């Protein structure tokens, strides 16, 4: 009799344990760290939308897009249909806040991984916290080259980085000389002075020297400046043919307004993405944003080569009435990559997720980026990330380089302010 009772208790206890484990797996808590207030809040809002769409596809499906991973919905199949739960944190563009919020996500919210944080110097500090706690950190957008040179085991970046992007600028200048007959001799640099902008300045200076291009001016301005009048006056006096610029949204908008106010316009502005690819940039500036060329990683017109781009963008537009940008498309891809790793791990154990990320090998046909795929090297850098250049014309972004992918001819030089309608 006692044996029967113990046996019954053992069976009951086992059933309770199984029920508890199944219940525990119904929610996969992922921390997402972005700027939801401050100068980059508009960018953060678009990234939040992209994260929400990705989580919804994993949880509920997108049955009309069978080529998209998790299109069947129903959660993560290898974890019994567990659903993703996003835990949002606002770093405000502040590295210290980013560190504090990452620690809160890990210790208080008990997230199994962190996605973030767009702004490179915030990504640098927040990922240090994740490394200390041994929690996987997936970075979809930050392009500071040094982020994957720190010897971290828990940091993974899906986007390409500035060393590649800056080289693209100079390859582009070489191509327009040999294929379009446009020779650029004098270039100025205008970059914000956080980690991202400072590293970009060093790379641009090095490559200009190697390529025999004359740097007539190099200005690093304080990020979040309230005015840029004196800096723009200095640029105007230097009279460059091309201006290479790295600015987040608020600074990007203010600088273009100041260019027009002071009558400064080189033959071309080559922008280093960030604020120049935000929907708010073209919405705020209207025609004044036209003709700027920006490095990018995504463009809607590339759907001609990959129908998945338009199919997923249609979902995004139907829900939020905006198109993806390079920023939000990368964020979407980042969360989908992390979801793929957690599913393959079949576990919420951080080490199992980390190992699955190391083994990631996603084909380019199954992502919305114009990349060969996603596969990380021993530094956590996606070896298949690549870049394009887009030009704004009539408020829309058009791929203009590489020329093999171009959907329209480059407008060069930029029409002067007084000739624009």
From TrEMBL:
Signal peptide: 1-24
Domain Leucine-binding protein: 27-395
Keyword Signal: yes
Domain of life: Bacteria
Keywords from the UniProt entry: Signal
SUPFAM superfamilies listed in its UniProt record: Periplasmic binding protein-like I (SSF53822)
Record InterPro entries: BCAA_transport (IPR051010), Leu-bd (IPR028081), Peripla_BP_I (IPR028082)
Key word tRNA processing present: no
Family the entry assigns: Belongs to the leucine-binding protein family.
Record protein name field: ABC transporter substrate-binding protein
Organism of provenance: Noviherbaspirillum pedocola
């Amino acid at each position: 009799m006692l044996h029967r009772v113990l046996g019954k208790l053992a069976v009951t206890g086992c059933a309770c344990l199984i029920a508890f484990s199944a219940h525990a797996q119904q929610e996969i808590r992922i921390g997402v760290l972005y700027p939801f207030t401050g100068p980059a809040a508009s960018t953060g809002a678009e990234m939040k939308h992209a994260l929400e769409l990705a989580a919804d596809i994993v949880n509920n499906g997108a049955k009309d897009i069978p080529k998209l991973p998790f299109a069947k919905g129903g959660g993560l199949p290898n974890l019994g249909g567990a659903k993703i739960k996003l835990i949002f944190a606002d770093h405000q563009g502040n590295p210290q806040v980013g560190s504090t919020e990452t620690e809160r996500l890990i210790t208080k919210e008990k997230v199994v991984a962190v996605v973030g944080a767009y702004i490179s110097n915030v990504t640098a500090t927040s990922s240090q916290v994740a490394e200390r706690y041994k929690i996987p950190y997936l970075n979809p957008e930050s392009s500071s080259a040094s982020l994957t040179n720190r010897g971290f085991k828990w940091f993974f970046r899906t986007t390409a980085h500035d060393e590649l992007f800056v080289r693209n600028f100079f390859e582009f200048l070489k191509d327009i000389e040999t294929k379009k007959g446009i020779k650029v001799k004098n270039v100025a640099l205008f970059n914000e002075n956080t980690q991202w902008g400072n590293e970009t300045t060093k790379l641009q200076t090095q490559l200009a020297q190697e390529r025999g291009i004359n740097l007539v001016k190099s200005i690093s301005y304080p990020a979040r400046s309230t005015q840029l009048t004196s800096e723009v006056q200095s640029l105007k006096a230097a009279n460059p043919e091309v201006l290479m610029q790295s600015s987040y949204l608020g600074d990007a908008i203010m600088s273009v307004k100041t260019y027009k106010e002071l009558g400064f316009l080189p033959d071309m502005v080559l922008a280093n993405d960030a604020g120049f690819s935000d929907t708010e940039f073209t919405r705020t500036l209207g025609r004044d944003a036209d003709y700027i060329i920006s490095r990018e990683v995504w463009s809607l017109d590339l759907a001609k080569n990959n129908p998945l781009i338009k199919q997923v963008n249609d979902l995004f537009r139907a829900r939020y009435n905006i198109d993806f940008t390079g920023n939000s498309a990368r964020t979407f891809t980042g969360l989908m990559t992390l979801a793929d790793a957690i599913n393959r791990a079949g576990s919420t154990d951080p080490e199992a997720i980390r190992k699955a990320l190391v083994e990631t090998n996603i084909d380019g046909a199954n992502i919305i980026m114009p990349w060969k795929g996603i596969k990380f090297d021993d530094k956590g850098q996606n070896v298949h990330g690549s870049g394009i250049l887009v030009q704004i014309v009539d408020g829309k972004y058009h791929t203009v380089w590489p020329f093999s992918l171009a959907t329209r001819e480059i407008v060069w030089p930029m029409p002067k302010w007084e000739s624009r309608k």
